[in-house]
Specification:
globular, about 70 residues, mainly alpha, single chain
Length: about 70
């Protein structure tokens, strides 16, 4: 599934802490995930939580996944 402007705009809005009622519902309603969201969902399905902050997989970015790899404490 190619990236679309709406996916990136929703992630940017969330990342910048801009109030957007219904954003999570919108992201979930698109029926697809970008690669970072899919990776987090696959791990959650295997009962492995990559992020201890309880974030929803719809808000996982590729930089967040990179941060896990770059953190030597993990």
């Amino acid at each position: 599934m190619p990236y679309c402007f709406a996916d990136n705009a929703a992630l940017a809005t969330h990342g910048l802490h801009i109030p957007a009622p219904g954003l999570r519902t919108f992201v979930a309603s698109t029926g697809h995930m970008i690669c970072s969201q899919l990776v987090d969902r696959a791990y959650l399905d295997a009962h492995v939580h990559l992020f201890g902050d309880g974030r929803w997989e719809g808000y996982v970015t590729s930089m967040a996944l990179y941060g896990l790899l770059a953190d030597p404490a993990r």
